[in-house]
Every structure is written in structure tokens, then in C-alpha cells.
Amino acid sequence: MKRYTKCIFDEMAYYDRKPKKYLAYSGKVDKHGKPLPDIDKSLARLDDPEVIASLVPDDLKISAYLDKGDGKMKGMYGVSTDAGSIGFCKKMAGDRKKICSMCYSLKKMKGFKKKSRPAWKSNLKIFSKRIVPVEEWSQLDYVVPYVRIHPNGEVSDYKHYKSICNFIIMQYLTNSVSGTVGWFTKRKDLVAKYGKWNFDKYNVPEDFLQMTYSNWYFNKEATTGDIPTGFDRIFNVFEKDFAEENGIEINCGTKGECARCRECYKSSGWKVVNEQLKSGSKKI
Ligand code: SF4
Q: What's this model's pTM, rounded to 2 decimal places?
């Protein structure tokens, strides 16, 4: 216990140089815009025997690779995996009626995101090799307002799914995400079965994670009644001509990029999000 007590004080003292470890975020920033810890809350957490027992030395902790978004995701952070190595993605991409047959991520990996692929492969391996427990995850190196799970890639299996839930829980417990986490997935089978897995056990509020179901099919209007079990909203994609001919209102993008819009990151956000297929999208 002594070791970690010392550790937390050291980190408070060196806060400017090395961002928080197990510090509670106060919701305030200093004059340079750096997040400030809530010292009372941090100490209360440190006194909790369960927290102490769960601490894993930093050098044994596991990190996921987080990258900055581009395009609509500019200014956001995301945890991606390699769609090219996931059986579910390959199967979906082979069906020409499904949106995955136009997978934007697979195209990006051949182009300007080529260099990210090793990191996304590494994330996939970490998430899916075994269920990584909450206490083994490291917190993010800095406080970020929002994190998106899988701007690229998808959940491969139940181990991957549960590891991500545990990763999210750790970020909540360490106040590494000051807003919420937005998870976009097509894996309605896993969401129906496991939901916000482990959240109860760690007292994580349900709305800390916003689950968006990515409609498998493009040009297929789905409404609130079609939101699958365990999801907060549904996300549809339409070709421009189809949307115009069928009077479908495209709302995604009308409030700017995700960092400004945030409709998919808040519990009061839109229940149905309609996006126009990116120009130049073609079957892969
Ligand atoms: S509706 Fe807003 S938050 Fe959701 S994907 Fe579109 S721009 Fe991003």
C-alpha cells in the first residue's frame, strides 16, 4: 500500500510532466488547458482496499493503440482493429447487399492509413487472444473528451468484446475519458448476449458507453423500432440518389464533425442517424 501511496503523490507532484495515474479528473483545466486532478476523490479512491488490491504495476499493464481520427472523425480518438484480419468483416464484405462490400477502412489501409495497420493488427491480437481483465488495462496517457471504439475494424469474437468492455471500464475508473465512449458495431449478436458487460460490477453508469448499431445494409431505412437489443441508436447509410428519391433526411454531418456534433456520444442524442455514402465509395 505504501508503494502506491508514494506513487500517487509523486505523480501529483510531477503532474505537469507525467499525466495522472489513478487520479480522478476534476473536470477543470489549468491556464494551459491541462486537466487538473480532483485530489480528494483521488485519495478516497486510493484508500479503497479493492482499488489497492487491483493495482497492477505499470510495467505489466496492457495498452491499446489509440489514434487520431480523420475526415468526420477529426479531433476524436479511436481504438481500431484490422478489418482485413477479421473473419466477420471478410464474410460481410463478400455480400454485395451489405455496406461492408464498400468497406472504407479496407480501402484506407491500402492508402493513407497503411502505416496504421500494424497497430490495428496489434490491437486485434491483444483484444482477442484472451479476455483482458479490467485491472490489467493501462489508463490512457492523457485525458480525452471522447473515444470511439472501432472507427476501423470490428469485434471478432466474445473475448474481443469482453476485453473492450474491460478497457472502457478502466478508462472510466481512471477518469481518462472526460465525456463518453461511442462504440459503433454490427455485432448485434454479441451486444444482445453481453450488453454493457461488467459495468454493474464496477458501478460504471450505462450512459458512459453509447452503443450505436451500424445497419448491415445500405439504402435500407431502419427506424427506432429496428434498434436491436442493447443498443442506444441505429446508424444507416444511403446513396445520395436513393436518399433524394425516397425523401430520407440525412442528419449525420449537419452539425459538423463528430467532435462538434456528438449526437452518437450522448444519451439524449439522435436515435436514428442517417449518413450519406461517402462520394467515390465503390464495391471492393
Ligand atoms: S451524427 Fe454526429 S456524432 Fe454521429 S457520426 Fe454523424 S457527425 Fe458523428
A: 0.80
